[in-house]
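[audit] Reproducing an earlier prediction to check determinism. Same input, same settings, fresh worker. If the tokens differ from the archived copy the diff job will pick it up downstream; this log only records the rerun itself.
[audit] input (467 residues):
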Amino acid sequence: MIIGDWYLTLPSKLESLAPLSISYAAFLLAAFFLCRIFSARLRPLVLIIANCFFLYSFSFEHLKYALILSGIGYLLSLLIKRTHRKEILYLSILLYIGILSYLKLPALFQHDHLLPLGISFYTFKILSYLIDLFRNTTDGTYNPLYYFSYVLFFPCITAGPIHRFDGFYQVIRNTQTFDYKDAKNGGFRVILGIYEKIVFCDYIASVSEKAMSAELSGWNTLLGILLYSFAIYLDFDSYSNIALGSARLLGFRLEENFQTPYLAKSLKDFWRRWHISLSSFFRDYLYIPLGGNRKGKLIRYRNLLIVFAVSGIWHGFAWHYLLWGLLHGLLLIIEDVLFGKLLKKNSILLTLIGIPVTFTVVSFLWLPFRMENMAEVLAVLKRLSIAQNFSYEAIGMTLNEAYWLLAVTVIVILCDLLRYRRNLIEDYSRLYFPLRWIGYAVLVITFLIFGMYGGSFEASDFIYQFF
């Protein structure tokens, strides 16, 4: 090995700072202390070093791509700020879309380059910064420390949320005082995210996988379809909790990424609550510039289809992601045409009917998202039509595991019902001291029993880190 190439192989000797690892917890704690030890002037530099080390722990290639793409974005931002020419903005957008397409379509462009970690998320952050700069809706900054600490902010690098520059800038530029409540609630939210992923999400995902196997059909297949809805929601929500909790530990309050999406009474309502940062990105930077709903219904419906087609492709340059996006767009149009006026009414009956109907529709729409070709989707639907009673034994579960699955599902639903009206973390922080610590003890015990030792599965990677 060439002596100068040591930095290429060093990450393989280190443990990657995956959000579920002990090393990530230690890294986050170190970043927490360092961001408070140094002054406001030096904090951006400390955060940039932390961001780079986080990416470097996965591989030097991930760090290289992130620095190159964000560096190009910074140079383009200087050009846009000084010239304010729309041609530079358009070229910037085309450049980043082209790079994203090239890296996400290895078969089409005939290459085998690594797909950089979190590239879709930080690319959209760069684009939002450049567009806001051109629109004069953000002050922007000539200081590269603020820019790079924003783009490469490590809590959000893997799977979002896609936060905007202004709120981040207002925090990092000012002197930061220690806030015990922020630190406590941020740390608790990180713990809840890890708990949600390992204890709830991975167990539900493993049962869903077994229930949807080719040997089963009927009610077992239906169970697998419905459980996958819970699994993908818990997977993404758990990472969002870890990201938002990590950011809060560092002094940043980012916007929520979910608002009980499976309590939506319509598809339109669902997309106000699901992956909010991505939905708002497409609304502000694609839907509204295309004309939004200002030019009549036909143009509005066209814009909806474009947005959802792009949303599908963003998840991956494959037909099944495009189909998933287009189906959502088409059903939103049908919903608006048939039930648009009805859904504007605030009716308890409508809500009681709309919630299960919307959840069922969304659950079946996850099929093309999950499967890789139409043959697999049709095979699942065919097995669904074959009569077969539910059997936990056929799925490979014991009776106790079936009871635990029921308990987990009920807990998730109850928590979402409570979250619909309350901020549970804030409420929990106000509980009497002994009650809080009893709750902590229950979390630890159930984590050890059902998370670490309760099953034959291991904590899987987060689904959205591959988009």
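[audit] rerun output stored. Observation attached for the diff report: The chain has two domains: 19-175, 181-466.
[audit] end
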